[in-house]
Amino acid sequence: MxxxxxxxxxxxxxxxxxxxxxAFDHHGLDVRFEVWETPPDALGGVVTGxxxxxxxxxxxxxPHKAAVIPLLxxxxxxxxxxxxxxxxxxxxxxxxxxxxxxxGFLRALREDGEFDPTGKRALLxxxxxxxxxxxxxxxxxxxxxxxxxxxxxxRARQLAADLGDGAPVSAVSLEPSDLAVGGGWHLIxxxxxxxxxxxxxxxxxxxxxxxxxxxxxxxxxxxxPPETPLLREAKRAGARTLGGxxxxxxxxxxxxxxxxxxxxxxxxxxxxxxxxxxxxDDRSS
Length: 285
Ligand code: NAP
Description:
Elements: E1 2-8, H1 16-26, E2 31-37, H2 43-49, E3 55-60, E4 74-75, H3 77-82, E5 87-91, E6 94-98, H4 101-112, E7 121-125, H5 129-140, E8 145-150, H6 153-162, E9 169-173, H7 176-180, E10 187-190, E11 217-220, H8 229-237, E12 240-242, H9 245-260, H10 266-277
Parallel strand pairs: 1-2, 1-3, 4-6, 7-8, 7-10, 8-9, 10-11, 11-12
Antiparallel strand pairs: 3-5, 5-6
Helix pairs in contact: 1-9, 1-10, 4-5, 4-9, 9-10
The structure holds NADP nicotinamide-adenine-dinucleotide phosphate (NAP).
């Protein structure tokens, strides 16, 4: 029996155990996916335990994606660039840090959102870890303009500065008056926690329908519930919508491949995640 798990704090909402275990079972692998709820002062001990021969590695989530970096032996190029790790792989006692949120987001955007970001105007809501990964992807893909809007504008300005001089990036607050300026977004991505089930902002949309152009694609990284307040505002505005589940599965599929060397069974993973979230399964591939 080998083990792998998710490291975060708190972890009550995670569906990763359900869809990753389904993938291991599908391949008949003797692996158990565990939930390792890890307060910050316990992070060092949990990561050291991953060097053991029976550990494949771990998924890493809030609040440890940056804090875990100094505890690892090497980083993939995307993890280095973004400054965040959401996946650890144990290679014979050496710990590798990866960022699969980046590729997962881009795949969801292209395949499920049918959206090509090159040359488009994008509005990013939030300036935390997920926003950082999405901002890097959108700039690499050559967006024409990227506006970062955050409740704490200073964090939006810091993220814009970290993205480098000369990048077509601006920073504003989440106030509707700020968001009316400029406008003309082709893509809006919610990287805040607003809308997340069982959170304080569960019933809130980060922006109203009045700030959403009818032709835009609105993408919410929140996957639980599947229809968030923002996605309802987007539909009201006549925009297209994309929920956070495809990104979650694609980043997890890359993790599964790096842990096992086997192809991730995407259909099985989607089905298990939908079951865990009590969503009717209307996806056949
Ligand atoms: P994080 O680093 O903690 O950042 C949280 C962000 O939400 C910050 O910008 C914060 O603004 C904002 N925020 C929190 N409460 C708010 C409120 N009441 N009003 C307005 N803004 C608020 O978290 P993260 O790792 O970036 O994750 C963000 C979201 O993305 C989470 O819901 C997470 O589940 C989701 N996510 C999904 C996937 C996926 O695969 N679908 C992957 C990664 C993340 P301040 O700076 O002002 O505090």
